[in-house]
Amino acid sequence: MTDDSQRGPEDEFREMLRQFLSGDSEIDPAQLAGVAGLPDDPAFMARLMSQLQNAVDSSGDGIDWKVATEQAVAAGTRSAVETPAADRAALEQAFHVAALWLDDVTFVSELTVAPRLVTRAEWSRLTMPVWSQLAEPVASSIADSLTGVLRDQAPEEMQSLLAGASQVMRSVGGTLFAMQLGQVVGQLSLEVVSGGDVGIPLLDDQQAAILPQNVAAFGEGLDIETDQIQIYLAVRELAHARLFRHARWLRLHLISSIREFAQGISIDTERLEALAVDFDPSSPDELRDAMASGALIPPKSDEQLAALARLETMLALIEGWVDVVTAEATARLPRSGAIAETVRRRRAAGGPAESAFSTLVGLELRPRRLREAAAMWSAITEAVGAERRDSLWSHPDIVPSSEDIDDPQGLIARLTDAEPALDDVDRAIAELLDDTSGDRPHEGGDGAAGEPGSSPER
């Protein structure tokens, strides 16, 4: 055992946190967990306290994202229902049909890995590496802000105690954030129907996956044959996975763009300090509401808004392309239009887990310009065909831009080497320039400038 005389400020701080987490304190840890939006469940609280104890004892740097994985997998496992063998066989057959139908309407690379049927818990485990990549910049910002506020607000006599305790606080704060992320991903696993359902590449390269339990829930109350729903959703998922397989640059580009946006997120320390000063552990509603509403994240900077606009454009281009090729591939399904409308309504409404992720990371998962992007892809397909359309994904320099979504005809004109149609303003400018050039005197030649019959030497 370490002699008390040899204990430093960091050891004292660890001991204080251990007493707090063991319940030997005036503040109930369960109330603070409630502030963070974590569930009031005895089993969960026991797991949370154990994880926080481990964080206090840990001297490592960074966040242990295994905490998030365990939390998400536990949520998916609790709600798991076994899928009948007949339904699994039908979904596997749906993927075979989807591959054949997509071959008829697209010119993107086929997958070299067979599609998978996964449980909710498996989806959480498979996707957590990407979720943690996206959330890590925000988690670091929160940990830095909490440490700074504690240091600034602590009385003089506690400064030496806190001086060596910043790493401990970062570890504890990171663990709390990881538990929150795990809660959100676990809830998302109850809502998504496939690997690409949220629009970003959550699975490994070339991997397509469907959650049979959630596909069954998707079809409840639709009065549409189950096999049509299964084929439609298999086509969507396969189209999404094939696109990322074909455009090798796209996955890294998209994840990097999301991280670029997230790295600009900061915490409103003044708001956090005000809440910390007035915080009443017996009535944590104000702090909980501030965290749940995203009030602690200040307005986006100009750089963030620009990064967000680029990100939303790319997400809209991806989802719009998937919508268009799915509609073409499933045209032979009698109820494909009704299924597509259900997908659109579901996407527009989002879900509670998506709202929670938006609050946690500050990013909406659903692009706002999806309809316009889909209309652009449809116009391109009609004008130049599917092969030329899909070739636009071959390099980031030629993928359509936000301006192309606004003006599909201009893009089509460039693709076909045709002059774009002039609108009224362009036509008036052209006529004005023609009139002006007719009044301009000619230069050069043997005769006087502007005299009839004079001509420039060649």
Q: Tell me about the biggest sheet? A: 2 strands, parallel
SSE series? HHHHHEHHHEHHHHHHHHHHHHH
How many separate structural domains? 1
Low-confidence stretches: 4-9, 440-458
Given the structure, what is the number of helices?
21
Count of strand segments? 2
Order the strands across the largest sheet as they lie in space: 1-2
- Ends distance: 100 Å
Question: What are the SSEs and their pairings?
Answer:
Blueprint (H helix, E strand, L loop, with lengths): L8 H13 L7 H7 L6 H16 L8 H13 L6 H21 L10 E2 L2 H34 L5 H5 L2 H23 L20 E2 L1 H8 L6 H21 L1 H16 L5 H10 L6 H9 L8 H28 L6 H14 L2 H10 L8 H15 L1 H6 L10 H5 L1 H9 L7 H16 L19
Parallel strand pairs: 1-2
What can you tell me about this protein's structure?
It is a single chain. The protein has 458 residues and is mainly alpha-helical. It has one domain. 65% of the residues lie in helices and 1% in strands. It is built from 21 helices and two strands. The chain has a two-stranded parallel sheet. The chain is globular. The chain starts with 8 loop residues before the first helix and ends in a 19-residue tail after the last helix.
